[in-house]
Design a protein that fits this description.
By secondary structure, the chain is α/β, with parallel strands linked by helices. The protein has one domain: Glycoside hydrolase, family 3, N-terminal domain (TIM Barrel). Helices cover 44% and strands 8% of the residues.
Length: 342
């Protein structure tokens, strides 16, 4: 699943889509207005010629949120402080409808990391809170709202890195806790989301030396196949966060990262910010496949999961008008959340 520069598809990206690319990640750098965004999503669908994932970050707040004319939604932290699960679901449904109007079908949310460390550069304003059971209820409500609006949710970042001091965009965070600690805290919201049927889970680039001392979670078969698949029973699509982040790129080349991520149990690997890494990563995966480094049964099962979630993402429905973006109803809903905080 690739990110790209510019406001239109290159011939290379169009070719990847035609050959089976799972999807595209969009950023504000890819459009200058919502009309262009909707045109671009239509262009992506035409190039693919089949159901395809079109993902975007719309968490609310300020750091990972879309600007006007999208509604200025409250952050996860504000939703958490407001403490109304029904209101969270209403907000998420409205977010989904705005995204659908623009042509996107995946929202990289809810973020289920606990804001355990107040100095965390990752979870400040982006986490629903510190209590795992409360965050679980918030996350399930957000997931339910997105899917009610017919946009796929993506629970992130498994297994959670709210207790880390390092931003994975820059370097590799480390979690020194045990598996018992994870099960009693960080994994609680993910278990709830899995139980509710969340279709995608995004992995975290974080090292857990007391569980797997060699590989970060996103490249760890212990964490992905062992914990997420077998222990927690997740049957949806595992999505590796951008392999170009410093946490991974400073330790692995793009080809090695892509191969090891897939060997660990990832279904879809993301490369979002360095187009130069794309061709080497795809070539490395092709070589690894030709050499028999992927189990054939696992490979086919992964493809089936991807096809199911793509089909789910592209279920036909009425086209929504761009005029719903920032409409009076949604502004009032956002204002209601903020009024609860006064």
């Amino acid at each position: 699943m690739l990110g790209f520069d510019g406001e239109s598809l290159s011939a290379e990206l169009s070719d990847y889509l035609a050959r089976g690319l799972a999807g595209v990640v969009l950023y504000p750098r890819n459009f200058h207005n919502v009309k262009r965004l909707r045109d671009l999503t239509a262009e992506i669908r035409r190039a693919a010629g089949r159901p395809v994932l079109i993902g975007i970050d719309q968490e609310g707040g300020t750091r990972f949120a879309l600007q006007e004319p999208f509604t200025r939604w409250p952050s996860a932290a504000e939703l958490g402080r407001a403490g109304d699960f029904e209101l969270v679901e209403q907000v998420a449904r409205a977010i989904a409808l705005e995204l659908r109007a623009a042509g996107c079908n995946v929202n990289f949310a809810p973020m289920l990391d606990l804001h355990v460390n107040p100095e965390s550069p990752v979870t400040t304003d982006r986490s629903f809170g510190t209590d795992p059971y409360r965050v679980a209820k918030m996350g399930v409500a957000f997931d339910r709202g997105l899917r009610a609006g017919r946009v796929l949710s993506c629970a992130k970042h498994f297994p959670g890195h709210g207790d880390a001091l390092v931003d994975p965009h820059l370097a590799l965070p480390v979690f020194t806790g045990t598996m018992e600690r994870l099960e009693s805290a960080e994994l609680v919201p993910f278990a709830a989301a899995i139980g509710a049927g969340v279709p995608l889970v995004m992995t975290a680039h974080i090292l857990l030396p007391r569980i797997d001392s060699e590989r970060p979670a996103s490249l760890s078969r212990t964490m992905l196949d062992g914990v997420l698949r077998r222990h927690m029973g997740f049957r949806g699509v595992i999505l590796a966060d951008d392999l170009g982040m410093g946490a991974i790129a400073r330790r692995y080349g793009p080809g090695e990262a892509a191969v090891e991520s897939l060997r660990a149990g990832t279904d879809i690997a993301m490369l979002c910010h360095d187009w130069r890494a794309v061709a080497p990563a795809i070539a490395a995966v092709q070589r690894a496949y030709d050499e028999g480094r992927f189990g054939e049964a696992e490979w086919r099962a992964s493809l089936e999961r991807i096809e199911r979630v793509c089909a789910l993402a592209e279920l036909p429905g009425p086209e929504l008008p761009l005029e719903i973006l920032g409409c009076d109803e949604y502004r009032a809903l956002a204002a209601e959340v903020r009024a609860r905080l006064l």
